[in-house]
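Good morning,

Attaching, inline, the backbone tokens for the sequence recovery test we're adding to the shared suite. The designed sequence is right after.
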């Protein structure tokens, strides 16, 4: 029963993170600034996956760099490709890639993982 509760809590937390990311992106689209950036490389993560690195300039002319929060074995965006970056004025840490192929994959990841943990927890609880 303890395992079931833990799995449901992990699933709920993952779903919460997905909703937070979705709301953050909605806020950036409504209140944020838009900048065009360029993919400058791919950061190799410990598990062997790669995250997209983007260079862009904010509205004050300051050069910035953003590493995507999603990584994969084969990045969906190649080096040199232009991408849209959104950020809140005065908060460069809020920057986010506004690319459908990245955002859909990220949200699907959260939904599938969150529902998977929740379903495993409920199945475990029903077996006990």
């Amino acid at each position: 029963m303890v395992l079931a509760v833990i799995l449901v809590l992990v699933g709920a937390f993952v779903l919460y993170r997905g909703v937070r990311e979705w709301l953050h992106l909605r806020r950036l689209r409504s209140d944020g600034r838009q900048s065009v950036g360029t993919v400058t490389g791919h950061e190799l993560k410990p598990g062997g996956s790669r995250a997209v690195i983007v260079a862009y300039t904010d509205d004050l002319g300051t050069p910035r760099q953003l590493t995507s929060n999603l990584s994969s074995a084969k990045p969906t965006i190649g080096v040199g490709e232009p991408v849209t970056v959104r950020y809140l004025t005065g908060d460069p840490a809020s920057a986010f890639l506004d690319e459908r192929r990245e955002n859909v994959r990220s949200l699907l990841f959260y939904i599938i993982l969150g529902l998977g943990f929740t379903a495993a927890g409920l199945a475990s609880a029903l077996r006990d």
